[in-house]
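In this supplementary section we document a worked example of the pipeline. Step one takes a protein sequence of length 215 as its only input; no multiple sequence alignment statistics are reported here. Step two produces a three-dimensional model, which step three serialises into structure tokens for compact storage. The input and output of this example are shown verbatim.
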Amino acid sequence: MGSYVLKKMPNGMGKGDCALYPKLMIYNMFDDEEVIKRIHEYSPAFSEGVIRGVLDALAYTMKSVLPMGHSMKIDGLGVFSLALGFDENPEAGYNVDDETGEVKQKEKYRHVCAKNINFKVDQKLIDEINRHTTFERHASTVSQQNASDSTLEQRKNKAIQFIEKQGFIMLDEYAQINHLSRTGASRELKLLTADPTSGIKERGRGSHKVWTLSE
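The serialised model returned by step three reads:
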């Protein structure tokens, strides 16, 4: 059984029933060791070593075929495809005009690179989850994502305390403890991870990204 809380959208972002939405309570993130262990429990005929080999082979195959313009479909799971974006060259530097001596910043060269991997879930997986799972409301109150009246430093310290207890923090958890929207939380976490003195770094990608303490 899963648990959820009801969230209220910020003002102007929903009308009537659409102003509320259920949000799943996330209690933990399974690492690869836990995933392999659970697959082995489901299919004990396959050793944990074999399962790890299959997962490594899957990651290698994705790395090999997605950049070539192919998508990958795994029945019962979904379709994977590569998302591209621009990456600016940080070594732009400066030019000095020989005639005038004027210093001009070089134009940053933007090249295309892989930015993310898109995933579209197989509807059969959603149907199976709904067939075998019921969801229970966790709290009777409805919370709303409001702009936080605390400072960035205070919100950072909250996140550090959370990480010290849990080992990591997820985007939704940062947003929840600091009363921010997901967009605001994402923006702040980017600022924090870009600052080497913040004590926070990111790990993982996409929906599996978490934030931990810097070593």
